[in-house]
# Entry
Amino acid sequence: MSRPKVSIRQIKAARALLGWSQEDLAREASVSIPTVKRLEALKGELGGREGTAEKLRSALERSGVRFVGEDGKGIGVRLYV
# Structure
């Protein structure tokens, strides 16, 4: 069973909470910097290959980010450190 998708805005907000650059996210997720830049230039849900989206999400979650909105009570991110 796949997890609900997160939005590009949530990814950017999560990076901001962590103080990460696009380069930091690319390194932590083991994806290329151009991939992060390309995906973040879009709007809406995080697109691209499912595996790439999961790598980005997992890297942020390993660092304490929790994506809010999967329970239908608003959309956002929280940082637990």
